[in-house]
Design goal:
Length: about 160
C-alpha cells in the first residue's frame, strides 16, 4: 500500500465559491438570448406570439434608480409600469404595422413585452415619473425615504 500525500493548492488559482444565484441568472440570460434569436429569425409569425425584450439600463444614485429602455415604435398609452416595493415591472406592446403585414421579411420585433427588475432598495411608488422621448423610455424611481443614502457624521472619541 502506498500512501498519498495531499497536494498543496496551486498558486494563482483560488477555489471559486459556488454561487447558485449567479448561475441561475447566467442561465436565464442565456435562455433569453436563445429565445430572442429564435424570434429574430421569424419562427413566430402570429401577432400574439411574437414577444420581444427591449434592452434596459438601470442606474442608481443617492436619491433614485433610473431605468432606461429602448422602445421605438411603442406608444405612451401602450406602456404600463408596476411598482411593488423593490420590484419594478415594465409591460407594453408594439403593434405590427399595416405595411409590414405584406412584407417579404420582418426583422423588427413586435408584440407584447414584459421585463421585471429587482432593485436593491424599495421605491416610493407615488413619486415615480416616466416619459418616452425619441423611442427611449426613462423611468425615475425615487427610493423610499427610509432607504435613501444619507451621510452621517460620526464623532470619534
Amino acid at each position: 500500500m502506498t500512501s498519498r500525500t495531499a497536494r498543496p493548492p496551486r498558486r494563482g488559482i483560488e477555489a471559486a465559491r459556488w454561487d447558485p444565484i449567479r448561475d441561475l441568472i447566467s442561465l436565464k440570460e442565456r435562455l433569453n438570448r436563445l429565445l430572442e434569436s429564435v424570434q429574430r429569425r421569424g419562427d413566430f409569425s402570429s401577432d400574439g406570439l411574437a414577444g420581444w425584450m427591449p434592452p434596459v439600463d438601470v442606474r442608481e444614485n443617492r436619491e433614485e434608480f433610473v431605468l432606461t429602455a429602448e422602445v421605438p415604435g411603442v406608444r405612451r398609452e401602450d406602456v404600463q409600469i408596476k411598482v411593488e416595493g423593490a420590484i419594478v415591472t415594465l409591460q407594453g406592446r408594439r403593434a405590427l404595422e399595416k405595411e409590414a403585414r405584406s412584407a417579404l421579411r420582418i426583422e423588427r420585433p413586435y408584440g407584447s413585452f414584459s421585463r421585471t427588475f429587482y432593485l436593491p432598495a424599495p421605491v416610493d411608488g407615488s413619486l415615480v415619473d416616466a416619459r418616452i422621448r425619441h423611442g427611449v423610455l426613462e423611468v425615475s424611481l425615487p427610493k423610499s425615504a427610509g432607504s435613501r443614502v444619507r451621510p452621517i457624521k460620526v464623532q470619534v472619541h
